[in-house]
Design a protein that fits this description.
Layout: E1 10-14, H1 22-25, H2 27-34, E2 38-42, H3 45-53, E3 60-63, H4 74-85, E4 89-92, H5 96-99, H6 102-110, E5 117-128, H7 130-133, H8 136-139, E6 145-154, E7 161-164, E8 189-194, E9 197-202, H9 209-218
Parallel strand pairs: 1-2, 1-3, 3-4, 4-9
Antiparallel strand pairs: 5-6, 5-7, 7-8, 8-9
């Protein structure tokens, strides 16, 4: 008897601003994601809201740009949060940290009941927080440390910070001195419980391999 093929999960990419070079910049990530899931795209508010409310809902929703921080898209962001509160997973990533207006970060995450706001912006090496991942098998697929240039968020609970600086982390720059960046409560890779679901943020601006692995893991995929 032939083995029944297991259907791939569906991942929704929410890209209302749809920056033209996203696919090129995130080609490696998208290739990895496509091997594990069916990718659907939403580039307008109405279709985004409808897809999030359909049954079955997407396995995860990735917010790839800053559009949902704009007031005219607040209803779309609320639809995402409703999806999350009912058990969904959403990750803010991609071009979001590059183009978001810093003053909009705090009220954006406050709608989710999270105290996150703009933190540091620099390149440094961060260390995996296995306890935050909460799954030893999944954590084993992630790099123990990696270097990234990122917009960090602050006021992050230790239990939500997948990666964070440690005592060895310094600014990695050809211009600035290698000063310590071990700031308590700051992280570039976070995943928090919101209602019955989870909301993540990956502040990497250069599509590093370690960040790709983290996003896939947040969606439940090992690399």
């Amino acid at each position: 008897m032939a083995t029944e093929e297991v259907a791939k999960p569906t991942i929704l990419l929410i890209s209302l601003n749809s920056h033209s070079w996203f696919d090129e910049m995130y080609d490696t990530f998208l290739t990895g994601l496509e091997s594990k899931a069916i990718i659907q795209r939403a580039r307008k508010g109405g279709p985004t809201i409808r897809r999030l409310s359909e049954q079955p809902p997407p396995s995860a929703a990735l917010i790839t740009d800053e559009a949902l921080t704009n007031e005219e898209n607040a209803h779309v962001w609320e639809a995402v949060l409703q999806y999350v509160r009912l058990g969904g997973t959403s990750v803010v990533m991609g071009h979001f940290p590059t183009f978001v207006s810093p003053p909009k970060m705090k009220p954006f995450f406050a709608r989710a009941g999270l105290p996150w706001e703009v933190g540091s912006y620099h390149r440094t090496t961060v260390k995996l927080n296995i306890e935050a991942v909460g799954n030893d098998d999944l954590a084993a697929t992630l790099p123990p440390k990696y270097s990234l240039k990122a917009l960090f968020v602050k006021n992050v609970a230790s239990s939500d910070a997948w990666y964070r600086p440690d005592e060895d982390s310094v600014v990695e720059s050809r211009v600035f001195a290698p000063t310590s960046v071990n700031n308590v409560g700051e992280s570039p890779v976070v995943l928090a419980r919101v209602g019955d679901g989870r909301l993540g943020y990956v502040g990497d601006v250069n599509a590093e391999e370690g960040s790709d692995s983290a996003i896939l893991a947040m969606c439940g995929f090992s690399t």
